[in-house]
Amino acid sequence: MSESASDIFAALAHPTRRQILQDLKPGERTAGEIAAAFSASGPTISRHLSVLRHAGLVSERRDGNRILYSLVGERLALSVGDFLSTVCPEQIVLRALRDHDRDRPDLTAAGAEGAGA
């Protein structure tokens, strides 16, 4: 597993960080808004945000004296997807078959029509 993937899985190991990611799903939030959702101290939440930033799972931007955080969902999806395809390669085959079947006409309906004729 790459160093980057290790950082991501280490970041995901703590329930507070997973909750922060969920809280950021609807959109950007300030550090204060994020911290208000937890009973932990501000410095503790700041440390969690630092771990998430280091892993590339959240980004930050300054707006005056505020820091706004947002989810980098594609990074999480790609990293977890890469890991799963490594440990569960059959999932790639199953996904390809499912996609192939979805693109084909509904053979079950055609077969049912032929059986009733």
TrEMBL record:
InterPro entries cross-referenced by the UniProt entry: ArsR-like_HTH, HTH_ArsR_DNA-bd_dom, HTH_MetalResp_TranReg, WH-like_DNA-bd_sf, WH_DNA-bd_sf
Domain HTH arsR-type: residue ranges: 1-91
Keyword presence, Transcription regulation: yes
Key words of the record: DNA-binding, Transcription, Transcription regulation
Keyword Transcription regulation: yes
Pfam families, per database record: HTH_20
PANTHER family in the record: TRANSCRIPTIONAL REGULATOR, ARSR FAMILY (PTHR33154), TRANSCRIPTIONAL REPRESSOR SDPR (PTHR33154:SF33)
Record-given protein name: Metalloregulator ArsR/SmtB family transcription factor
Organism listed in the record: Microbacterium istanbulense
Taxonomic placement: Bacteria, Bacillati, Actinomycetota, Actinomycetes, Micrococcales
